[in-house]
């Protein structure tokens, strides 16, 4: 199966546009119900973008019916396309953006909007070594470093597909000028890593990290306009029906 490997980012439009309801009707029943439960407009648009994005990326490359694309999840809640378990993707959203990473091998991605935060939260979720490193960072860079570390750890958990069953403090991440790598809890790099990390720049207000079994990462995030995504999805999904 051909996989259009890459990272795709959609900025949430201020207005959903004329195609929004047509797109909503072509998503899964579970997604439609979840979307309609949100009270905030931004949350509804974000929910629709998430599924429309992965469906569009898949339908670009594979001539199948949109209606045939059904989603399921592993025992820890990581979603995948039921009929295409070797098609690996992962979604993440924060603030104004929704991201989707696609690969031929297992993958995880996380985006976080940088906001003021009480850094003592790291005592609960990070390893001892990671906490020491945060305190060693100059004060004006600590918040940014915290979010870079957080997205790296989240991307690893999503790569593993084990969700909340894998505590954030059960492993360590090292970040330095040479990049990002998984470490033992004492901070020593693993001799034979089975995953590879890469940080991406989206905007100064966000941190993004990818974790993949594939060491050949995309060069950059491919940006897609939200309204253009809706328009393309209507075109590639075809027909006039709601997905089941």
Write a structural description:
Residues 106-184 form the 4'-phosphopantetheinyl transferase domain. Its cofactor is Mg(2+). By secondary structure, the protein is of the alpha+beta class. The chain has 2 domains: 1-105 and 216-244, Alpha-Beta Complex (Ribosomal Protein L22, Chain A); 106-213, 4'-phosphopantetheinyl transferase domain (Ribosomal Protein L22, Chain A, Alpha-Beta Complex), CATH 3.90.470.20. Helices cover 33% and strands 25% of the residues. It has 7 helices and 11 strands. The protein has helices at residues 20-25, 29-37, 41-61, 122-125, 128-136, 142-160, 226-237, and strands at 6-11, 71-73, 79-81, 88-94, 97-103, 107-113, 172-176, 179-183, 196-200, 206-212, 221-225. It has a 4-stranded mixed sheet with strand order 4-5-1-11. Strands 6-10-9 form a 3-stranded antiparallel sheet, covered by helices on one side. A two-stranded antiparallel ribbon has the order 2-3. The chain is globular and about 55 Å long. Mean pLDDT is 91; it is low at 240-244.
Query: What fraction of residues sit in β-strands?
Result: 15-25%
Q: Count the strands?
A: 11
- Give the N-terminus to C-terminus distance in angstroms: 24 Å
- Provide the CATH architecture of the largest domain: Alpha-Beta Complex
**Strand and helix order:** EHHHEEEEEHHHEEEEEH
Mean pLDDT: 91
Name the CATH superfamily assignment of the largest domain.
4'-phosphopantetheinyl transferase domain
Instruction: Specify the overall morphology.
Output: globular
Total tally of structural domains? 2
Main sheet?
Answer: 4 strands, mixed
CATH class of the largest domain: Alpha Beta
Structural class: alpha+beta
Radius of gyration: 19 Å
Number of alpha- plus pi-helical segments: 7
Keywords: Antibiotic biosynthesis, Magnesium, Metal-binding, Transferase
GO molecular function, one term: magnesium ion binding
Domain 4'-phosphopantetheinyl transferase: 106-184
InterPro entries: 4-PPantetheinyl_Trfase_dom, 4-PPantetheinyl_Trfase_dom_sf, AASDHPPT_N, P-Pant_transferase_sf, Ppantetheine-prot_Trfase_dom
């Amino acid at each position: 199966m051909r996989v259009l490997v890459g990272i795709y980012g959609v900025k949430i439009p201020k207005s959903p546009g004329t195609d929004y309801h047509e797109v909503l009707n072509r998503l899964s029943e579970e997604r439609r119900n979840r979307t309609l439960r949100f009270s905030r407009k931004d949350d509804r648009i974000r929910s629709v973008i998430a599924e429309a994005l992965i469906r569009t990326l898949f339908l670009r490359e594979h001539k199948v019916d949109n209606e045939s694309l059904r989603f399921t999840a592993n025992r820890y809640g990581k979603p995948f396309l039921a009929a295409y378990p070797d098609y690996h993707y992962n979604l993440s959203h924060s603030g104004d953006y929704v991201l989707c990473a696609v690969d031929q091998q297992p993958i995880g991605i996380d985006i976080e909007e940088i906001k003021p935060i009480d850094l003592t939260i790291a005592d609960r979720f990070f390893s001892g070594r990671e906490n020491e490193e945060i305190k060693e960072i100059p004060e004006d860079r600590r918040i940014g470093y915290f979010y870079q570390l957080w997205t790296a750890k989240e991307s690893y958990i999503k790569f593993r597909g084990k969700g909340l069953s894998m505590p954030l403090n059960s492993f360590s991440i090292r970040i330095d000028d040479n990049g990002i790598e998984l470490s033992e809890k004492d901070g020593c790099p693993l001799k034979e890593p089975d995953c590879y990390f890469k940080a991406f720049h989206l905007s100064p207000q966000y941190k993004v990290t990818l974790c993949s079994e594939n060491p050949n990462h995309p060069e950059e995030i491919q940006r897609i306009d939200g309204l253009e995504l809706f328009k393309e999805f209507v075109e590639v999904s075809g027909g006039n029906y709601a997905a089941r």
